[in-house]
Amino acid sequence: MAHITYLTIGELAARSGVAVRTVRYYCDAGLLDAARTPTGHRVFEPGAVERLLLLRRLRAFGIGLAAIEDVLDGTRSLAEVIAAERGAVDDELDALNRRRALLRAVESAAPGCHDQRPESSCRRG
């Protein structure tokens, strides 16, 4: 029978580069499984390091916790979640491009908007 060497929360934090309070948050959110020692301290199986690193990478991409939970529990594939996030970013970029085009149109149509002097007609007051 193999013996599992559990990691303390501090060891897990150190190995993953994630703050202890963040590890606690992910545990409380149900994204990381922790066992408890008889004294109530959280301990983790070694596989928690890879899970936490994946979680951290996905958060760095701006992916929400619900989607991350879906990936971690196998409800959705990583590729599916990444594609959905990329689609959301594309939609945001489209909206920003439309906004920029509208601002340019207003700027070019309004007399004096290119003038940077304080008395310019584009400024209030």
What does this molecule look like?
The chain is mainly alpha-helical and 125 residues long. Helices cover 56% and strands 6% of the residues. It has helices at residues 9-16, 20-28, 48-60, 65-72, 78-109, and strands at residues 7-8, 35-36, 42-44. Strands 1-3-2 form a 3-stranded antiparallel beta sheet. A hairpin with a 5-residue loop joins strand 2 (35-36) and strand 3 (42-44). The model has no long low-confidence stretch (mean pLDDT 89).
Order of helices and strands: EHHEEHHH
- Can you tell me the residue ranges where pLDDT is under 50 for at least 5 consecutive residues? none
- Largest sheet entry: 3 strands, antiparallel
Task: Let me know the average pLDDT.
Answer: 89
* Rg calculated over all Cα atoms: 24 Å
Secondary-structure map with pairings?
Layout: E1 7-8, H1 9-16, H2 20-28, E2 35-36, E3 42-44, H3 48-60, H4 65-72, H5 78-109
Antiparallel strand pairs: 1-3, 2-3
Helix pairs in contact: 1-3
What is this structure, in a nutshell?
56% of the residues lie in helices and 6% in strands. The chain has five helices and three strands. Helix 1 packs across helix 3.
